[in-house]
Amino acid sequence: MKLLLTTAIFLMMVSIGTSFRAKEMWNNTRRMGGWKWLRLLLAVFIIPPALALGLARIMPLSLAETSGLFLIGVAPGAPLLTRNVAKRGFDAQLAAVYQVWVALLTPIMIPLLVFGAAKLYDRDVWIPPSILLKQVAEKQFFPLILGMLLMYFAPALATRIRPALNAIGNTILFSFMAIILFKMRSELTHITPWVAIAAFLLAVGSMAIVPWIMRTEAVRDQTLSICNANRHVGLALLLSGQYLHAKNALPTVACYALVAPLVMWLYSKRVSARSGKSVQTSL
Question: What's the pTM?
Answer without folding.
Answer: 0.84
